[in-house]
C-alpha cells in the first residue's frame, strides 16, 4: 500500500511496509544518499534527519510514524547553507560518512539557537559519532556558521 | 599497516594455467611469489592519455590527478594532487582528483609492490612518482610552446595552467596548447623544481577537494551504490570464530516480502533480497544450526591470565609456542645492581569500528567479475576474487569509491567481506549486482581486532636513575601469520616501537623477547599497529622511571635521546614542550602529561592537559609537535593529528572487546563505547620544519595520547596505569 511522505518539501509515494525504518525508505526507495546507516539503533547519528524541524534518528523511526511530518535530509540544505560553507572552509570532513548526520544535528541546533554556547553544542552534537575525530572542527564550524547570514527560510528547519 | 613486502621476481612467460593455479590454490601464494607488476595486471584494461597514468588534462584545460590511493579520510587526495599540481604549475583551484582503477603494474604502492594503501605511505611512496609525472607533463607544455613561438624552452614559464614567454609577451593556456603538448614525447627524466621554489606545497591553499561533496551527501560510498536490478544481501554469521553451518531452514525467511533467495556460502547463510530491510528481516527469520566443533571457545579473561603467566614464566607454554628475540645486546648479568623497576601492562582486543560498516558490491558472470566499493588493497581483493570465480586477477575490475573509514580494517589479506560478497554474486550470477550490507553487529563481531597484548618489563637503573638493563617480554597474536606478506624474521608488527626505541638504544644491556600465540579471533593492523601498545609501554614506563629518579619527564627524555642520538625525538619534544608552556604551571585543575613516539617515519610529541572527573580522565588541550618531513598539506597534517588523537583517546578511554566462551560480547556502539564530541580534546598541531622527504601522517598521531594521559594521571596522583582502557566498566 502506498504511503505519502513529505521529503525535502516534495510529496513522495513509497510502498514500504509500515514498520520499515524511515532510513531505508529514504535510501532504498526515495533514492537519497545523504542519510547514512551507521548503527541501526539510534546510537551514532549518521542517519539523522529533521522531522518537523527536530533531529531524529531515521534508523529507528518506522516510516508509518513519519507520515504527516516534514522530513528534511542533508539534501535540503542546498549546498550553500552557512553550515555547509563553514564545513568546507574548515575542511571538517575526513572520511565524510558521518557528516550528513552531523550537519542535520547542527542545522537543528542553529535553527532553534542561533548563537549556541559550548555546552549547547555539546548537548546537541553528542548523539553524532565521528570515528575520524573531526569533533573540534565541527565545533569551530558551527560557531563560524553562527556568525554568517542566516540560511534562506526554505532550507532545513 | 606497515608491512614491508618481499617480492621475488617471477619468471617471465608464466602461462595462464600456472597463474590460475597460483590464484586458485592460494590467492596469497601468487602474491608472495611474483613480481607484482606485469603479472598481476594481465587482463587489465590499460588506456592512459598523452600525459600518462597519473594526470589527465581535458580539452578545457582542467587538470585531473589520478590517485592510486583510496581516500577514506586521510586527506591524501589533497596531498597527492598538490604534489603533481606543484610540478605541473597547474591552477590549483581547478584541479580535480579521480580514483585509479586496479592495475598493479601501473599503480603499485612503491613501498609494498602491490596496489594498496597503508602504512601511512600514500604521500611518501608517491612523492617522487607524482613530482616526475607533473614535471613531465609541464615539460610537454613548455616544449609545445617553445616550438610554436620559436622561443628557447628555458625562457618559457608556467603559472596557474598558463604558459608564458615574457620576452615575446606570448601566453597560452593549457587548453590552447593541449593538442600540441599531447604530441610531445614525455621526457624520461624531467627536471624537478628546487623545493625552495614550491609555491603550492606547504601552503595554506592545499585544502581538501572533497569537502563540499562530503557536506552535501553527494560523495559516493559503497552504501550509496544503486544499480538497476541490484540485490541486497545480508549474511547470518556464526556466533563463534571457526564455527560452520551445520544446517539451515530458510522456509520462514523466504516468506518475507522482498526476499529473493537464500544461499549457503562458506561464511554462513546469505539472504538476498530486493532491498536492505527485506534482507534484514529475512535474515532474522532464518534458522541456522552451527557446527562448533572447531570453534574458539576461550574467553578473554582466560587468555589474559595465560598471557601473564607465560610472560612470568609460570606454567607450560602452549604447544609450538616459543620465545623469539626482538632486541638483544650487552649482558644482563653484567648490568650491575641498581634499583629495579618492574611492571606489566595489558591491552585488550580493539574493534576498528569504522563509521561505515563493511560492505561491497559485486557482479559476476561467466568469466567476468566487477567490484564497486572502497578497496584498500585492490591487488589482494583482485587475487581473492579471482580465486573464487576462477579468472585472471588482473581481469577483476575494481572501481574504488570513498570509504567511511578503515583504520586498517579494509586492508585484509583474506578480503573477508569482499570474498563473501563475491561468493554471493557468484551464486546469483548473470552479472547481477549484489550489494552486501553488514550491520554494525556483523561488523563488530566479525573480528579482525587489534590483538590482545601483554607486556612484562624489568629494568635496572643506575645511580642517576637511567636504565642499565632492560628485560622486555611481549605476548600477543601475530598479525602477519598466514598473510601473503610473511615477515622474514620476527613479526615486526608485534614489537615495532619497542624494538628500535631510542630508550633501548640508550640502554647498554637489553633482552627483548616476543611470544606469539594462536587464538581463533582474527587480528589485524589497527591504526598505528604495534605502536598502539608499544608507545604506551615505553612512554609510560619512562615517566615512571623519571619519577623514581626524581627527574622532570621532559628533561629525562632529552637525556635519553641524547644518549641514543635521537635528534628528531628531541626536537619534536622540545617544540611541544615549548608550545605547551611545560615549564610554567598548568591551568588550575589540570595536570600535564607528555609522551613521544616515532612511527611510520614520523615523530610525534604530545603534551596533554588532563583532569579526572568522577574518576574518568577528561582531556582538554593537547599540544602536538610532529616531524613528518616535508608537509604537503599542512592543514591535513593537523586534521590527521586531531583525528588520530581522538581515535587513540577513544580506545584508551573506552575501547575493549571481550570474548565470553569465545563469543564477542560487544555488538554495537551501546556496548562498545567510543569518543563523543563533548569528550574530544582541542588539539593544537605544530609541524617541525624539515627538508626531508615526506613521512607518514595518517597513523603517527594515534598512539601518543594514551601514554600522555597516563603520564598526566601519574603526575596527578602517583598512580601508574597497568591496563587499558582507563574506564573499566
Ligand atoms: S544509523 Fe541511526 S543512529 Fe546510527
Ligand atoms: S568524518 Fe569519518 S566518521 Fe566523521
Short description:
Chain A is an alpha+beta fold and about 160 residues long.
Specify which chain pair forms the largest interface: A-B, 58 and 61 residues
In CATH, what is the homologous superfamily of the largest domain in chain B? Aldehyde oxidase/xanthine dehydrogenase, molybdopterin binding domain
Measured on Cα atoms, how large is the radius of gyration of chain B?
Answer: 27 Å
Tell me the fraction of residues in β-strands of chain B, as a range: 15-25%
Structural class of chain A: alpha+beta
Count of domains of chain A: 2
The number of helical segments of chain B is: 20
Tell me, briefly, the overall form of chain A.
globular
Note the total helix count of chain A. 6
Low-confidence stretches of chain A: 153-157
Q: What number of structural domains do the residues of chain B give?
A: 3
- Named at the architecture level, the CATH assignment of the largest domain in chain A is Roll
The CATH topology of the largest domain in chain B is Aldehyde Oxidoreductase, domain 4
Bound molecule kinds, no repeats? FE2/S2 (inorganic) cluster
Report the major sheet of chain B.
7 strands, mixed
Q: Briefly, what CATH class of the largest domain in chain A?
A: Alpha Beta
Amino acid at each position: 500500500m502506498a504511503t505519502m511522505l513529505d521529503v525535502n518539501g516534495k510529496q513522495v509515494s513509497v510502498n514500504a511496509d509500515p514498520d520499515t525504518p524511515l532510513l531505508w525508505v529514504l535510501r532504498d526507495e526515495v533514492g537519497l544518499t545523504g542519510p547514512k546507516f551507521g548503527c541501526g539503533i539510534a546510537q551514532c547519528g549518521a542517519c539523522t534527519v529533521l522531522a518537523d524541524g527536530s533531529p531524529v534518528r531515521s534508523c529507528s523511526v518506522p516510516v508509518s510514524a513519519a507520515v504527516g511530518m516534514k522530513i528534511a535530509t542533508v539534501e535540503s540544505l542546498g549546498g550553500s547553507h552557512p553550515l555547509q560553507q563553514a564545513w568546507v572552509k574548515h575542511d571538517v570532513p575526513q572520511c565524510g560518512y558521518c557528516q550528513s548526520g552531523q550537519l542535520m544535528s547542527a542545522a537543528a541546533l542553529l535553527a532553534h539557537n542561533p548563537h549556541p554556547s559550548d555546552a549547547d553544542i555539546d548537548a546537541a552534537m553528542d548523539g553524532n559519532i565521528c570515528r575520524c575525530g573531526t569533533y573540534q572542527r565541527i565545533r569551530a564550524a558551527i560557531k563560524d556558521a553562527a556568525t554568517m547570514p542566516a540560511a534562506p527560510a526554505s532550507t532545513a528547519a | 599497516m606497515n608491512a614491508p613486502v618481499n617480492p621475488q621476481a617471477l619468471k617471465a612467460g608464466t602461462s595462464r594455467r600456472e597463474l590460475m593455479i597460483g590464484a586458485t590454490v592460494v590467492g596469497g601464494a601468487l602474491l608472495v611469489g611474483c613480481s607484482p607488476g606485469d603479472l598481476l595486471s594481465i587482463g587489465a584494461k590499460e588506456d592512459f592519455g598523452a600525459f600518462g597514468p597519473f594526470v589527465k588534462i581535458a580539452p578545457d584545460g582542467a587538470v585531473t590527478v589520478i590517485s592510486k590511493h583510496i581516500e577514506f579520510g586521510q586527506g591524501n587526495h589533497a596531498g597527492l594532487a598538490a604534489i603533481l599540481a606543484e610540478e605541473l604549475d597547474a591552477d590549483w583551484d581547478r584541479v580535480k582528483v579521480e580514483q585509479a582503477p586496479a592495475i598493479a603494474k601501473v599503480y603499485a604502492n612503491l613501498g609494498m609492490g602491490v596496489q594498496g594503501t597503508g602504512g601511512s605511505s600514500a604521500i611518501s611512496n608517491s612523492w617522487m612518482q607524482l613530482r616526475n609525472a607533473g614535471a613531465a607533463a609541464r615539460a610537454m607544455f613548455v616544449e609545445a610552446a617553445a616550438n610554436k613561438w620559436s622561443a628557447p624552452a628555458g625562457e618559457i614559464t608556467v603559472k596557474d595552467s598558463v604558459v608564458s614567454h615574457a620576452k615575446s609577451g606570448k601566453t597560452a593556456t593549457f587548453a590552447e596548447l593541449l593538442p600540441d603538448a599531447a604530441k610531445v614525447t614525455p621526457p624520461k627524466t624531467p627536471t624537478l623544481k628546487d623545493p625552495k621554489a614550491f609555491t603550492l606545497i606547504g601552503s595554506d591553499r592545499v585544502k581538501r577537494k572533497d569537502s563540499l561533496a562530503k557536506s552535501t551527501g553527494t560523495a559516493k560510498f559503497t552504501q550509496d551504490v544503486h544499480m538497476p536490478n541490484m540485490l541486497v544481501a545480508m549474511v547470518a554469521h556464526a556466533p563463534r570464530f571457526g564455527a560452520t553451518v551445520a544446517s539451515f531452514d530458510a522456509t520462514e525467511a523466504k516468506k518475507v516480502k522482498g526476499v529473493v533467495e537464500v544461499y549457503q556460502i562458506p561464511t554462513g547463510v546469505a539472504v538476498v533480497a530486493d532491498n536492505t530491510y527485506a534482507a534484514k528481516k529475512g535474515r532474522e527469520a532464518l534458522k541456522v544450526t552451527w557446527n562448533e566443533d572447531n570453534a574458539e571457545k576461550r574467553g578473554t579473561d582466560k587468555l589474559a591470565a595465560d598471557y601473564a603467566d607465560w610472560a612470568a614464566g609460570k606454567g607450560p607454554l602452549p604447544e609450538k609456542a616459543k620465545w623469539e628475540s626482538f632486541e638483544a645486546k650487552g649482558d644482563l648479568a653484567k648490568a650491575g645492581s641498581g634499583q629495579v623497576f618492574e611492571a606489566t601492562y595489558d591491552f585488550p582486543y580493539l574493534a576498528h569500528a569504522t563509521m561505515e560498516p563493511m560492505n561491497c558490491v559485486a557482479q559476476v558472470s561467466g568469466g567476468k567479475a566487477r567490484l564497486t566499493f572502497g578497496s584498500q588493497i585492490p591487488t589482494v581483493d583482485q587475487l581473492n576474487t579471482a580465486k573464487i570465480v576462477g579468472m585472471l586477477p588482473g581481469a577483476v575490475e575494481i572501481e574504488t569509491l570513498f570509504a567511511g573509514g578503515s583504520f586498517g580494517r579494509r586492508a585484509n589479506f583474506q578480503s573477508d567481506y569482499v570474498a563473501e560478497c563475491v561468493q554471493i554474486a557468484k551464486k546469483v550470477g548473470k552479472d547481477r549486482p549484489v550489494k552486501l550490507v553488514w550491520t554494525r553487529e556483523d561488523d563488530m563481531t566479525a573480528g579482525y581486532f587489534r590483538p590482545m597484548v601483554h607486556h612484562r618489563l624489568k629494568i635496572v637503573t643506575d645511580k642517576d636513575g637511567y636504565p642499565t638493563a632492560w628485560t622486555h617480554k611481549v605476548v600477543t597474536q601475530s598479525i602477519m601469520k598466514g598473510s601473503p606478506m610473511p615477515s622474514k624474521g620476527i613479526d615486526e608488527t608485534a614489537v615495532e616501537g619497542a624494538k628500535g626505541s631510542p630508550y633501548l638504544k640508550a640502554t647498554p644491556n637489553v633482552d627483548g623477547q616476543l611470544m606469539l600465540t594462536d587464538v581463533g579471533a582474527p587480528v589485524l593492523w589497527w591504526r598505528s599497529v604495534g605502536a598502539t601498545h608499544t608507545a604506551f609501554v615505553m612512554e609510560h614506563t619512562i615517566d615512571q622511571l623519571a619519577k623514581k629518579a626524581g627527574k622532570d619527564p621532559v628533561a629525562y627524555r632529552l637525556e635519553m635521546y641524547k644518549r641514543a642520538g635521537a635528534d628528531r625525538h628531541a626536537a619534536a619534544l622540545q617544540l611541544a614542550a615549548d608550545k605547551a608552556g611545560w615549564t610554567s604551571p598548568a591551568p588550575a585543575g589540570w595536570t600535564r602529561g607528555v609522551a613521544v613516539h616515532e612511527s611510520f617515519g614520523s615523530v610525534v610529541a604530545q603534551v596533554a592537559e588532563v583532569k579526572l572527573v568522577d574518576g574518568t580522565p577528561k582531556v582538554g588541550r593537547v599540544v602536538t609537535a610532529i616531524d613528518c618531513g616535508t608537509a604537503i598539506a599542512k592543514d591535513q597534517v593537523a586534521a590527521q593529528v586531531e583525528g588520530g588523537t581522538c581515535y587513540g583517546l577513544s580506545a584508551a578511554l573506552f575501547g575493549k572487546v571481550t570474548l565470553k566462551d569465545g563469543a564477542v560480547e560487544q555488538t554495537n556502539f551501546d556496548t562498545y563505547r567510543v569518543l563523543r564530541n563533548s569528550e574530544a580534546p582541542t588539539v593544537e598541531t605544530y609541524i617541525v620544519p624539515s627538508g626531508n622527504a615526506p613521512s607518514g601522517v595518517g597513523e603517527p598521531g594515534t598512539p601518543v595520547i594514551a601514554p600522555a594521559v597516563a603520564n598526566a594521571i601519574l603526575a596527578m596522583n602517583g598512580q601508574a596505569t597497568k591496563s587499558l582502557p582507563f574506564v573499566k566498566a
